[in-house]
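Ticket 4471: requesting a sanity check on a complex prediction with magnesium ion. Repro inputs:
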Amino acid sequence: MKTDPHTFFDSFDLLIDDGLILVDANGEVVRANQAAINTLGARILNQPLEYYLRHPDINQALNSIKEFGETSPLTYLRYDDVQHEYVVKFVAFPDDHCLVFMNDVTARISFDKIRSEFVANVSHELRSPLTALTGFIETLQTTAADDAKARVEFLAIMQEEAARMQRLIDSLLSLSRVEAQEHLYPNDDVQMLDVIKDVTSSMMHRAAHRGMSIELSNNLPQTLSPRVLGKKDELSEVLHNLLENAIKYGYENSKVKIILETDTHNKMVKTSVVNSGEGIEEIHLPRLTERFYRVDKARTRKLGGTGLGLAIVKHIVNRHRGRLQITSDLGGETVFTVYFPLLGA
Ligand SMILES: Nc1ncnc2c1ncn2[C@@H]1O[C@H](COP(=O)(O)OP(=O)(O)OP(=O)(O)O)[C@@H](O)[C@H]1O
Ligand SMILES: [Mg+2]
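Returned structure tokens:
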């Protein structure tokens, strides 16, 4: 039975989202699906494929399909605004035609890169406290074995390093939990005022430790009850992380403010956590929610930070279909605002 290449092409096109191109015996494009046209342009039709899919081995690949019926895939890089990487495969077709399949693997490659960077970051963060612990254990077993004063001092450092590892692991678990649930829409009826009061009272002690106080300004319309469809634990975690940062990075003896208001259309409840401090330079703002991103690694590490708090905040806010906004005046106020859709609005 003789097969019409065009019928074949139509059947394949229905099955895939990748670029599909039918090339005739002269290497000219006979058909191209929408994905291929989006990538290479409608101009490819009736033109030699080599003009637009510019790769040194493209003609060799088409020839070996004609001659031997097979060839190896090519890796093709294309630069638009960003670099895209395609794996291009070739299949022999009747009448010396060739079917060219362009699989965009950019997303997979960047995902693999993110994953390996993540593992490298976690390992690095765990290695520092582990190295410190191993070092102190060795010292306590040898040179400082009989030094009571050094023992007390070293054990305190070891405790702090172990606590750092514990915090890192807790944050990682928290992050993976919220990431796993990001596509699920949380649906408890949560009163934001309760969340704010609970978290504030749990942080009072830490604030007082730095001579700071936490003050709530409720600027909501009097009749409005700030209820959101959400998950209370997660909303508490957002506020906890923002308050913790405000206390950690704010000036000693300064005030931390929590401001509760609505957006202009009364559709969203806005919760802002405001602190006075050195602030954050503008170039860092878009990157703060990346995992492990810290403005001043050495300094924030000393403060016990792993750079995961805001990554967790961002995921929870996304899950609640909310928004996070950050502004900072150097030496002035730093404001982290989270918006959540108001229930019934
Ligand atoms: N209120 C703030 N003022 C100044 N810098 C801030 C403030 N909040 C966050 N940052 C900066 O953003 C970085 C990222 O914050 P994030 O909460 O994600 O991590 P962290 O506080 O370092 O560690 P973790 O929250 O995981 O313990 C911090 O390291 C700090 O440099
Ligand atoms: Mg933090």
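Notes from triage: The radius of gyration is 29 Å. Leaving this open until the requester confirms.
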